[in-house]
Amino acid sequence: MSPSEDVIKGSSVTFTCSSDANPPVTQSGYRLYKDGHLINSGQNHTVSDLQPSHSGWYCCQAWNNISRRGISFINSTEIQLDVQYGPVNISVSMDPPHVVEGSSVNLTCSSAANPAAHNYSWYKRTASPSSTIQVGSGQVLSLPSVEASHAGLYLCQARNPLGENNSTDVLLSMKKEEQGSQLLPILAGVGVSLPVTLVLALLLFWMKQRNHAEKKWNSHLEHDAQTSNGDEVTYSTVTIKPRNSSPPEHINNSRSKAEENDDTVIYTTVAISS
Prior knowledge:
Blueprint: E1 7-8, E2 13-16, E3 30-34, E4 37-41, E5 44-47, E6 56-68, E7 71-75, E8 79-81, E9 83-95, E10 99-100, E11 105-114, E12 119-125, E13 132-137, E14 140-143, E15 152-160, E16 163-166, E17 170-172, E18 174-175, H1 179-230, E19 232-240, H2 257-260, E20 264-272
Parallel strand pairs: 1-9, 10-18
Antiparallel strand pairs: 2-5, 3-4, 3-6, 6-7, 6-8, 9-11, 11-14, 12-13, 12-15, 15-16, 15-17, 19-20
């Protein structure tokens, strides 16, 4: 393989296969394999635009129809093609994906590179879209307590010996904790305590009504007791004089004992509450 090392993405490489044989191996007697799969026939094979997908283990097979111990071909030792390239496919992940003001968030930068990226820098867009300021370094940018000033567009730059590249912009936005979410525990507590509170309120109302009824009943009993025991009873005598004229004829001649006397006495009772 030429060159044999430091093969860079986009460059070219040539595989040349050779062997000692009698009769010599013809062009059609050479085959090139990558990771066990046939990719080409012939003594030479060139890849002009190397990509990471070309990396792998290669070997050459030669044969000339002369068998040796029943085998008419032999393979070369394997050789590794390691295509090197600068950082590509740089992406930023945010954990958690939804940020609430006052919480923490981690921005993680990842990339594909050979050799692996060894340097990461974080930038934030300013008011001018083309202007940025560096806000951190390292593969992870941690913001322990997110504030309104942290909101904006962030990007990551990954670097290795072959170059550097930037990620696409990632928007960090935040929202204040919704009042609904704050009320959830309260509402949950209300949901549990409301039936209990209602029962207690009904119980208190019933007890109040009962006490009122008892007081009213006791007052009535006291009144009756006072009337029966403590009332002053006054007897008065009313004397009714009979008329001088004779009674009408149609009145029954039978008279009461009281009417036989000159005077009629009627007793009346008057109860006076104390």
